[in-house]
């Protein structure tokens, strides 16, 4: 699939927006403003993925993004006949891939960023999949979706944004049928580890990501609390696995060796990425966990 052009805004407006976003420590952009700013400038070459990828067998960034998409489908047991609800679908590439490779009966998507919804709907139409994929504007925390209507709810690298993730768990529970499954690929803070310098790096890396990517403070908790919130909501068979070693460090190494991926970003974002790539992955991502979580709604 070809790259899209960024949404119309003057180059000066875009540059000022990026400068404010990246340099101003007091800026507090909401999630929609962040994704409107990023527009369709994904560092991937063939698709428009916005995830960090799953790298054990990937040879490039697009491969890694697709591998994460398929890893999530596998963890959630996505299969033929499933009625899937996909929240935070970005530009819809993941839904097109699932429709082709896993053949669920239908996928309904909800995304809060209208500019992405328009592009994603167009891509689904171009792929000839409108009968099976229905991508809508809407929020994961207040779903315009019938109760007990989904076999599988998926949140691929987006639940950390939701205001709040706990509200999303409540909604996921409501829309799932009894026995239905939830799967998330999610970013959390890491448990405290190491001496004071390592802990300072942990706090800084979490703060940086949380403040630039609109993560509400209410979502800043670790694996045990994540598990407790799912259990409190009534989910069973909860499994939370950290896959951070297969995500952050290999992505960092790949970007350091493939400047053409970084070149696809806006020039100001490119500069920021190049600064980050001068540091080693262990310190840049020290404060960030990356989990795959699955749970089942009790029968
Ligand atoms: C990091 S991107 C991931 C996109 C896509 N899943 C992928 O992997 O390429 C996060 C996505 O979550 C969406 N999002 C954020 N908050 C949301 C909410 N409350 N409801 C639905 N979508 C939301 C954003 O618009 C964006 O598409």
The CATH H-level superfamily is Vaccinia Virus protein VP39
Alpha-carbon Rg, integer: 18 Å
Q: Report how far the terminal alpha carbons are from each other.
A: 41 Å
Helix content: 40-55%
Structural class: alpha/beta
**How would the global form be characterised?**
globular
CATH architecture label: 3-Layer(aba) Sandwich
Indicate the low-confidence ranges by residue numbers.
1-6
Question: Strand count, sense and closure of the main sheet?
Answer: 7 strands, mixed
Strand order of the largest sheet: 3-2-1-4-5-7-6
Reported by name, the CATH topology is: Rossmann fold
Number of strands: 7
Mean pLDDT: 94
Bound molecules: S-adenosylmethionine
Number of domain modules: 1
Strand content: 15-25%
Task: Describe the protein.
This protein has 299 residues and is α/β, with parallel strands linked by helices. The chain has one domain (11-294): Vaccinia Virus protein VP39 (Rossmann fold, 3-Layer(aba) Sandwich), CATH 3.40.50.150. The chain has helices spanning 11-23, 31-38, 61-75, 93-102, 114-126, 165-175, 196-212, 223-233, 248-257, 259-263, 267-277, 281-284; strands at 83-87, 106-111, 133-137, 150-156, 176-189, 235-242, 288-297. Strands 3-2-1-4-5-7-6 form a seven-stranded mixed β-sheet, with helices on both faces. It is globular, with a radius of gyration of 18 Å. It starts with 10 loop residues before the first helix and ends with a strand.
